[in-house]
Amino acid sequence: MVAVLKHGTTKEQTELLINWLKNQNVDVNVSEGHEYTVLGLVGNTRNIDVDLLASLDMVESVKVVSEPFKKCNRKFHPDDTVVTLANGTQIGGGSFCMIAGPCSVETHDQIILVAERVKAAGANVLRGGAFKPRTSPYDFQGLKAEGLELLMEAKKVTGLPLISEIMNINHLDMFEDVDIIQVGARNMQNFELLKELGRTHHPILLKRGLANTMKELLMSAEYIMSGGNENVILCERGIRTFETYTRNTLDISAVPMLHDLSHLPVIVDPSHASGIAKLVRPCALAAAACGADGLMIEVHNDPIHALCDGAQSLTPDQYDEVAATVRKVLAAVAQ
What's the rounded Cα separation, in Å, for the pair 71 and 41? Predict the structure, then answer.
């Protein structure tokens, strides 16, 4: 249930109403917009007298929300959420964030070279996998703790914030200096992991699962937010369909749909969506044109010899061109 308060309602009036609602055994999520204050009622709202609530002088309107996701629902929070990193980088609310780097951290020279090149091309955040979930147990599983240490060195050299994927909540202490913790597609419905991440204040990038609906993605975000962590970024990275020419199928319609349903930022990963390097550029441009809040692109200095996902990785020179063209699309859309 959502109660929209009238413009001019005082802080004292709002607090009285909130206390009254909490006495009805519901949690109240407060969202203060430019003109209205929105109270989102979460929990068993059956005992709330809707007509009584709507009749109060300070209440503009009352809406019953049927969707099971509440905290990430735009009806509860009409304004876009903006996730701000420690260095001031913003994701959402009109900002466009470029995240780039190798699928997997391999060597010191590799991550430093790629970090410097993507920063020069305008990237805001450096990505790099230290823990790698692989379909085969015989494939490269990442450098783990050593990989995180190499990412920290790249951060010191370039100043770029970091994003890396967590696979086990027992590793959380190792991610203390990682600016964004990524939950990969395979862990989107690892609910125990999501609950624990909800108790942190780290920004979380939540990737859509390979065969999950948008509703299921939002319910996973709800797990994190219900724990108190509202710094959630959604990521569309392609879903599995009957098509075999691409690794996955980029659901470009998910970007505007998720923006309609939720106030959370939505970025696109065109690298995993297609699995083919030559398709990254057109998919990235489509994402920029349809209103995505950012892109996450895999960049490797030597894709042919990459230990992970070389076929979908751009070279630094290719990334330079893609980043420049994305900026042109953003400028055209803004006109």
Answer: 9
